[in-house]
Amino acid sequence: MMLTHPKIAKLQQLRKLSDLWDRSLGIPGTKFRVGLESLFGLLPVGGDVLGMVFSVYLLIQALEFNLPKSILARMVFNIIVDGVVGSIPIVGDIFDTTWKANTKNVNLLEAHLSDPVKSHKSEQWFISLLLGVLILVLVVVAVIFVGAIALAVRVFQH
């Protein structure tokens, strides 16, 4: 795929956003980096939902590159794993520091653009299906954790 100037700019923007979210903050004394997602993920319920929303935003922006179904499916898988496992208290917070779904997804995009597989672009129905699955997972994660918070509040009130 021949990249035009606007597409190069879009790719650079997606890389900057994924770096901000996944690895913008260095841990002093180490080479390990985390991003804003690791910080927001510490917030009960909202942090993980916000992380998934951000990841879906990056995916929607990547749709401009007419990626094949296989790449889109891998990107959606990365987001779902990040959202579901990341929402588990404590374990999910640790997981979020290493999984870095947005970085994985931009790497997939860049790898495809540097050596595009000869395939047809994804049909609109497939893209709609993937986005529908992501929205469903996002809603389920939000409902489960809002329910858990509500239950915890009720238990502590008694």
Describe this structure in words.
By secondary structure, this protein is mainly α. The protein has 7 helices and 2 strands, in the order H-E-E-H-H-H-H-H-H. It has helices spanning 5-23, 36-40, 46-62, 69-86, 91-99, 101-114, 124-157; strands spanning 25-26, 33-34. Strands 1-2 form a two-stranded antiparallel ribbon. Helix 3 (46-62) packs antiparallel against helix 7 and helix 4 (69-86) runs antiparallel to helix 5 (91-99). The radius of gyration is 17 Å and the shape is globular.
Describe the protein's topology.
Blueprint: H1 5-23, E1 25-26, E2 33-34, H2 36-40, H3 46-62, H4 69-86, H5 91-99, H6 101-114, H7 124-157
Antiparallel strand pairs: 1-2
The gist of it:
The protein is mainly alpha-helical. The protein has helices spanning 5-23, 36-40, 46-62, 69-86, 91-99, 101-114, 124-157; strands at 25-26, 33-34.
Q: What structural category do the secondary elements indicate?
A: mainly alpha
Radius of gyration: 17 Å
Average pLDDT, to the nearest integer?
Answer: 85
Task: Please report the distance between the alpha carbons of the first and last residues.
Answer: 62 Å
- Walk across the major sheet and give the strand order: 1-2
Query: What portion of the residues fall into strands of 2 or more residues?
Result: under 5%
Q: How helical, in percent, are the residues?
A: over 70%
* Strand segment tally: 2
**Number of alpha- plus pi-helical segments:** 7
Poorly predicted spans: none
Order of helices and strands: HEEHHHHHH
Please state the overall shape, judged from the principal axes of the Cα atoms.
globular
Main beta-sheet strand count, sense and barrel state: 2 strands, antiparallel
